[in-house]
Amino acid sequence: MRSAVALLLMLSASVAVLDQASAQRAPTTGSASATATPSAVPAPAPAPLAMPVSPLKCTNPNALGVSRTVEIDTAGGPGFGGEHFKQHDFLRNKEVVLTFDDGPWPTTTAVLKALADECVRATFFPIGKHATYYPEILKQMHAEGHTVGSHTWSHANLERLKNAAEQKAEIEKGISAVAMSAGVPLAPFFRFPALRHPAEMVTYVGERNLAIFSTDMDSFDFKMRKPEQVVNAVMTKLNKHGKGIVLMHDFQTATSQAVPDLLAQLKAGGFKIVHMKAKDSVKTVAEYDEMVKKEQKLPTVSTRPTSSVVRTVE
Could you report the per-residue pLDDT of 264-274, keeping only the tens digit for each? Predict the structure, then answer.
């Protein structure tokens, strides 16, 4: 009996760690904005092993759900999204891929809840620094069956950096930070910040066997303050084009509030969700793993969630 109680307490503690988001920091990143500075980077996990994901059971009988799951072979660095890459258009009429950039952030939890309520899977492109701020949200992303790629270390516009070495460091540190924070291998999916694609880095990413994702339609949600504006922007473009890979930002408050209504309108409009998975995972590079570790500042021993450290008493 005692052992059963102890097991229940341990499981409850694990769920609390997964669900609790850290206190929100002031935003510093939009679609093409400046970067944030982390206060601490968690020590990386030893070479992570693949963690099996058992998607949560759908308990909503009227859920939008996922109509089709596709596997992407990223060898050679294929490009997706008709705004820049037109070779691989795999979507049928009325099919939609939902993608979210710039997380994880406290706003991401609302996005995850909305997706879970409708049993929908999406693809996320997290920023490396943000991943170090909110690893528990990143872990939740993965645990709920979403695909996690990368979006550089600090969301820098690679075209404005001095040289190829700095550009590669932005890409690789982002991959290392997200993988270290998630504790599992990532999908070899990459999106360039602000959809700026320096030719030399397109070649480099291809040599790393990372698929490059542009978009078929950009919501431009970072320019919007109301959720209804986000929904209208996405649905207007989808109704015009009939299908597509949609780019949004889970970092944006309006977007996080818009997702429930967006999913409802997709369902009402007869659109179907396609979920992308990768055939293989990406391997981090030791040199850049070390760079991320050096970003660590004043680490503490405690790994307790904020809710167990700070509580309102009056």
Answer: 999 999 999 99
CATH number corresponding to 78-280+288-293? 3.20.20.370
User: Where are the domains positioned within the chain?
Assistant: 78-280+288-293
Q: Is 155 left (phi over 0), alpha (psi -120 to 50) or beta?
A: left
Using alpha carbons only, what angle is made at residue 295 by residues 15 and 278, rounded to the nearest 5 degrees? 55
Find out whether 197 and 212 touch, Cβ atoms under 8 Å.
Answer: yes
Is residue 125 very low, low, confident or very high in pLDDT (cuts 50, 70, 90)?
very high
- Give the up-direction half-sphere exposure of residue 9: CA atoms within 13 A in the CB hemisphere: 6
Express each pLDDT in 63-72 by its tens digit.
999 999 999 9
Q: What angle do CA 41, 46, 50 make, to 5 degrees?
A: 110
Element (H, E) at 69: strand 68-72
CA distance 132 to 177: 7
248 and 125 Cβ atoms separated by less than 8 Å: no
Closest CA to 22 of 154, 120, 136, 98: 136
Which sequence positions are flagged as catalytic?
Answer: 101, 249
DSSP code of 220?
-
